[in-house]
Design a protein that fits this description.
The protein has helices at 2-8, 13-18, 25-44, 54-60, 66-76, 87-124, 133-139. By secondary structure, it is mainly α. Among the domains are: 16-45, no CATH class; 88-124; 128-160, no CATH class. The mean pLDDT is 87.
Length: 161
């Protein structure tokens, strides 16, 4: 039964290896080797443990009732399986990370279109050596000096310099 549960949770080592930085390849290879060794050990084990021959032990053990007591305790023994308490929180973290990543991708696409528009503006503008002051002020409005508001040179507030 344990072998089947492990098989359901197989690791995609190729996809995992693509995300490993070069300086951590040795640690990744050690992890994969150890995981493969544990997997091989689990697959070599039988699905159910071998049945105990209680009649043989009753004939071999001299003390009467001891084997019956062991058999009773063995059959009453219940080994609890660990409860998965982390999968839900990991799935929530994954969903949050995916949401953040998709928001970042959308923001990046918006920035890319803005940068492409600016690049087109720079490609289509008059070369700087052929521009007049009016052309410069039309192309880059932030360079226009306000001589009415600030009549003295540098025609800008000193705080903006």
């Amino acid at each position: 039964m344990a072998g089947r549960r492990v098989a359901l949770k197989a690791i995609d080592w190729v996809a995992f290896a693509e995300r490993i930085p070069p300086n951590q390849k040795a640690m990744f290879n050690a992890l994969k080797t150890r995981s493969d060794a544990i997997s091989a050990k689990l697959t070599s084990l039988p699905e159910t443990p071998a049945a105990i021959d209680w009649s043989y032990y009753r004939s071999a053990v001299a003390k009467a009732g001891m084997v019956d007591e062991f058999e009773k305790k063995f059959k009453a023994l219940q080994i609890p399986e660990p409860v998965d308490t982390q999968t839900n929180s990991i799935n929530a973290q994954e969903a949050e990370a995916n949401k953040n990543a998709s928001a970042y991708i959308e923001g990046s696409k918006a920035r890319i279109t803005q940068y492409e528009q600016e690049l087109d503006k720079f490609k289509n503008m008059i070369p700087f050596d052929q521009m007049t002051i009016e052309d410069l002020n039309d192309t880059f409005p932030e360079t226009k000096l306000d001589k009415v508001k600030h009549p003295f040179w540098p025609h800008k507030p000193i705080a903006e310099l």
